[in-house]
Automatic annotation (TrEMBL):
Enzyme class: ligase
EC number: 6.1.1.21
Assembly with partners or alone: Homodimer.
Name of the gene: hisS
Catalytic activity: tRNA(His) + L-histidine + ATP = L-histidyl-tRNA(His) + AMP + diphosphate + H(+)
Database matches in InterPro entries: aa-tRNA-synth_II, aa-tRNA-synth_II/BPL/LPL, Anticodon-bd, Anticodon-bd_dom_sf, His-tRNA-ligase, HisRS-like_core, HisRS/HisZ, HisRS_anticodon
The protein's name in its UniProt record: Histidine--tRNA ligase
Any single GO BP term: histidyl-tRNA aminoacylation
Length: 405
């Protein structure tokens, strides 16, 4: 038997329904906020991710599905959606047109070669949004509102964490101060953090190791080293969130695992799904378009991990819908087939059972198919040009003229 690869899952029945419901709900809300659908390729050049997500990130360093294609190109299955959307934005030359504001949403599979566990897959799905050309912190607020609205609509509880990662003016001096602090405690840190002091010191702040976290309690805080503009924006964001009634917490150790962020960073977490508690994450990436050789353009976005919220979603109660059609003898099959065609052309859902059966068996089939109506033609109906119909919700039964349906 051939099975799916480790860390990759089939979505069917209930899961497939949940996936579709999440994507449809999030897409509807994104459109209400002025976002347009975008679809970018799943396979991209490896250097796109190296340059955006960053060589020192775990994603690029350890988790890429990277290979050489038949043409000798170094390519990679996308580990996340932002890089591809930014590439598409630059490739379409949208960065060259002044004053544009472009807002996109997308969904689909992402690939990370991680150690599979609950909430962590190798192929997983994200719903994400990216907004270009808006530098105002009000956009940061709007995206956080939109994400809350999506989770509210899906009936999911969450906690919001925010931080500011500073900009090219205030981040480098903070990084130096932090490195100085970390060098002083280096021997006590875990091996990963010791390595990160030189490769990516900011990532030390969100190390999951308890001992490291204790040592970091007295670390210098980025929120206390922000430049005037970043500080003003971060305070304004908090004020807007205060008045909106969204419950949030400033987490000075929230640094995100991708290198392209600056300014606002945020995560939504759930305490109902175990250790992998982040259900969505995002933030500003005002330098990313430039890093990928576009004209400097501010950007901000987020992505939801669809599998992580799948079991939390409150689905609306499923109602019976459509038609189940059956013949009671072989001679009635043609009439039932053409009734099926007629109903579908009218926009109705209709499923035909081809095997002639007795009424009881057809009613059972209709029930199993979740149909609202069971319509059956037998010898009598065929002769009279009628069809017998039962409404499975109201239990009402009647015989009607085929033409009048
Ligand atoms: P991220 O935090 O790497 O951000 O991923 C976003 C969400 O995807 C996570 O919060 C989590 O729910 C889900 N996720 C990540 N890895 C896995 C996995 N292995 N299995 C299941 N779910 C997973 C990004 O990807 C950024 N591109 C978000 C963004 C958009 N920032 C700006 N724009």
């Amino acid at each position: 038997m051939i099975n799916a690869l480790r860390g990759m899952k089939d979505l069917m029945f209930d899961d497939a329904e949940r996936y579709t419901y999440i994507v449809e709900t999030a897409s509807r809300i994104a459109r209400n906020y002025g976002f347009d659908f975008i679809e970018t390729p799943i396979l991209e050049e490896t250097r796109l991710f190296k340059r955006s997500v960053g060589e020192s990130s775990d994603i690029v360093g350890k988790e890429m599905y990277q290979f050489t294609d038949k043409g000798g190109n170094d390519v990679c299955l996308r580990p996340e959606g932002t890089a591809g959307v930014v590439r598409a934005y630059i490739q379409a030359k949208l960065d060259r047109q002044q004053g544009r504001k472009d807002r996109f949403f997308y969904y689909g599979p992402m690939f990370r070669y991680e150690r599979p566990q609950k909430g962590r897959l190798r192929q997983f799905h994200q719903f994400g949004v990216e907004s270009f050309g808006t530098a105002e912190v009000e956009e940061d607020f709007t995206l956080i509102m939109m994400l809350s609205e999506i989770f509210d609509a899906l009936g999911i509880g969450y906690k919001v964490k925010i931080n500011s990662l500073g900009c090219s003016a205030c981040m480098p001096p903070y990084r130096n101060t932090l490195v100085g602090f970390l060098e002083g405690i280096a021997e006590e840190l875990c091996p990963d953090c010791q390595r990160r002091i030189t490769t990516n010191p900011i990532r030390v702040l969100d190390c999951k190791n308890e001992n490291c976290q204790n040592l970091l309690e007295s670390a210098p805080k980025l929120s206390e080293s922000l430049c005037e503009k970043c500080d003003r924006d971060f305070k304004r964001l908090q004020k807007l969130l205060d008045t909106s009634g969204i419950d949030y917490e400033v987490d000075t150790h929230l640094v995100r695992g991708l290198d392209y962020y600056s300014g606002t960073a945020f995560e939504f977490v759930s305490d109902e799904i175990g250790a992998q508690s982040a259900i969505a994450g995002g933030g500003r990436y005002d330098r990313l378009v430039e890093f990928l050789e576009g004209k400097p353009t501010p950007g901000i976005g987020f992505a939801i991990g669809i599998e992580r919220i799948m079991e939390l979603v409150k689905m609306p109660e499923e109602e019976r819908s459509g038609w189940y059609l059956g013949a009671m003898d072989a001679e009635s099959l043609d009439a039932i087939l053409s009734l099926g065609q007629k109903l579908r052309r009218k926009g109705e859902k209709a499923v035909v059972e081809y095997a002639p059966k007795g009424l009881k068996a057809h009613l059972k089939g209709a029930d199993r198919a979740g149909a609202k109506y069971c319509a059956v033609i037998g010898e009598n109906e065929r002769k009279d040009g009628t069809v017998w119909v039962k409404d499975l919700a109201s239990k009402e039964e009647k015989t009607v003229l085929l033409e009048s349906l």
